[in-house]
Write a structure and sequence with these properties.
The protein is of the alpha/beta class. Helices cover 35% and strands 24% of the residues.
């Protein structure tokens, strides 16, 4: 149903999402510095990073298979909250998110086998946290899980207890907008048939 692809990411969450919907893939992480361009709105920056990753891996793999890349950023008050540097920064981020609604923007880039043109898009989802007390934040930070996640939380694990509402694509918050992605992969497969 879907073409076999190359996932330009070492993210276990993105790999699990692809397995969940039956997309076969090889993992070839992009060897680039993931820097959001200065002055660019955070969502546009996530989309740009996804494009940079997909192009780097497509060139590396000689474009033999379609290549997929994504970048997710948490946005609060027009500021990107990336992966925290340490436990203190994770606590600070989670405290800022407590009791508020923020945006999770996932930039996605896809390039077909043998193609030069990158298809890219941005999916934004509003996530509302309930008021979270300091003891809950400390307990979550103590797990070590916030350190490898934008905004210091993973909606698919313990931090799900903090989430009061999701307006938009839940899977984009985890790392890939599955409905958009699988639709595009089916179109790609039909064109190749």
């Amino acid at each position: 149903m879907y073409p076999r692809i190359v996932l330009a990411s070492a993210s276990p969450r993105r790999a699990e999402l692809l397995r969940q919907v039956g997309v076969a893939f090889d993992v070839v992480p992009a060897d680039i510095v993931e820097r959001h361009p200065v002055g660019m709105p955070p969502g546009d920056a996530a989309r740009q990073v996804a494009c940079d990753k997909v192009t780097a891996v497509a060139d590396l793999t000689n474009r033999e298979l379609p290549v997929l890349a994504a970048d997710t950023v948490v946005i609060l008050d027009d500021e990107a909250l990336g992966k925290p540097r340490d436990d203190d920064e994770a606590r600070a981020m989670l405290s800022r998110l407590s009791g508020r609604t923020h945006t999770v923007a996932t930039g996605v880039a896809l390039i077909g086998s043998g193609e030069q043109r990158v298809e890219s898009w941005l999916v934004e989802t509003a996530v509302t946290f309930r008021a979270v007390d300091a003891a809950e934040i400390d307990a979550y930070v103590a797990t070590g899980r916030p350190l490898d996640k934008a905004g210091a939380y993973g909606i698919q694990e313990d931090a799900a207890a903090f989430v009061e509402a999701v307006d938009g694509c839940y899977y984009a918050v985890v790392g890939l907008p599955l409905a958009d992605l699988t639709r595009r992969l089916m179109v790609m497969q039909r064109k190749r048939a």
